[in-house]
Prior knowledge:
By secondary structure, the protein is α/β, with parallel strands linked by helices. The protein is built from 13 helices and nine strands. The strands form two sheets. The protein has a six-stranded parallel beta sheet with strand order 6-5-4-7-8-9, with helices on both faces. A three-stranded parallel beta sheet has the order 1-2-3.
Amino acid sequence: FSDGAVARRLQRKFGTPYIVAVRNTDINVFMKYRPDLRWLCWDILRNAAQVVFLSPLYEAKLKGMVPPDLRADLDKKSRVIPNGLDHYWLENTNSEERFHNELRLLYVGDFSRNKNIMGSIEATGLLNEGTPTTLTLAGDGGDGEQMVDDLLAREECAFVSRIGRIDDHVQLRAIYGAHDILVMPSFFETFGVTYVEALSQGLPVVHSRGQGVDGYFPEGSVAEAVDPSDPVSIVEGIRKLSERLPGLREQCVHESQRFGWDLISGNYKDLYVDIAREQSK
């Protein structure tokens, strides 16, 4: 294909100009396993009017992969705009302090291997050597479900409980309110709206370094970035948050307000207005 051929096809199909959103699969699947198609990626990015990233870390990752001339172009037309949170969570926040006899960890989501539930279980086991700690798994499905079930059948994993998938917001809110910290050290994560749900309910979060919401929160605040392949790193992230828990709930709720759809939709509106203004010149 000649330079710009793919972009022209997109323009004919969707109209001109167009916006590109970069996600987890683009960087961690296609860029890794289909290097023969990188020319296609460069073509689309080069001819896009704007490029949207869901996190600051994904923006930095992609810019580190592209040719130098394209990197300079991306600097001019890249924006970081996160996913938004359902209005329910922002209208029903919970910053109340919780007092438990043990540290209560929570995971919410599917049981795919990518979510690294096994790593969270191992980390919880290590914590139990010095601090009474429990882990609740709220979810089902995924290619790692049977592996998790087999592990939970063992007596040495009595500190882990599984309550199944919960779709009702009211019930899920009660689950969040009964726990202290959300632990989800996924290997790959485009954004992870579960992190922000947890924040709205006063739970600080453990996430993977370089994935998901990494880059949105200052170091030493409501989130800890960890190495998902190292249970000791996960343990350290949990410990740091547990030491900051007193007084941290309100800060969690405050940070969640940045992810309201009203604010995010306004950012997208501004984006389209800027493009339209540029095209009219």
